[in-house]
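Cross-check.
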Amino acid sequence: MSHRWISRFLEAQAAELDAAQNTQLAYGRDLKDFHTWLAARGGDFQTADRDTIEAYLTHCAAQGLAPATRARRLASIRQLYRFAFDEGLRGDNPALRIRGPGRKRSLPGTLTEAQVTTLLDRAADHGRTPLDRARTLAMVELLYATGLRVTELVTLPVAAARGTPQVLLVRGKGNKERLVPLSGPAQTALAAWLVERDAAETLQTAKGARPSPYLFPSRAKAGHTTRQSFFMTVKALALEAGIDPTRVTPHTLRHAFATHLLEHGADLRAIQMLLGHADLSTTEIYTHVVETRLRELVLTHHPLADTPSQIATADLGSDP
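Predicted model, tokenized:
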């Protein structure tokens, strides 16, 4: 019965709420873990009560799971029981009043403009063939120029890039569309990639292969360059650029895009639209990144840098 609950719940999420595939996978993993824990104790979704759910969360904590992971699992359970109540599978919602662990909001990792420039320089020469090099440069330029999520990048349709566009139409989380402008270097890299891509595809179709609908096609099962493949490419570029590869992922470039825009005076609401954030509060975390950088700048270059405490207490005067 519990497996049927999960299937029906995920189907509803996909059909009614248009949940992204990664969101559905996360729900599925969390709920299967809860189901396995319940089954080992002779229980199921139908009989679990508030005490049972809280015992499961205690079990998760004992396993050493991070607060963010435990909070996500509780969110999955809450969504399931909200669905079950609405569908009449249960007459109550046992997860309704359970409080989860606090989620510490950490600042996103980012890169300096100089570091991004070095990465882009390395991208132009990364790869064994002109096709590989053109693909790598186009993907990194696009990522930094637009702030796309990596899934949005690798699944871009080639139709979106035809006709030397100055903006791209992107389908993001929840199937929501948004327009993102392209920088000059990104447009140049994209045009060069299309030349190489189309030439390679012409050779493949002559051998009987079907044309790919993706901007970055691949022989992988998905039909496009995978997130994992691009992840490893970015790590290799960081190593070549002399940057600690543990600090650099495709998502780091998305953070750099937002942080650098803010540092150059971009409006927070505009950045929210470009990133595809549903809530402005999600975007506001970048203001903390900039504040942290400014604080470090003062502590590093201010005349009182040797005695940081004096900076906080010094009388800096007031505006006339």
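The mean pLDDT is 84. The domain at 113-293 is CATH 1.10.443.10 (hpI Integrase; Chain A). Passed to J.P. for a second look.
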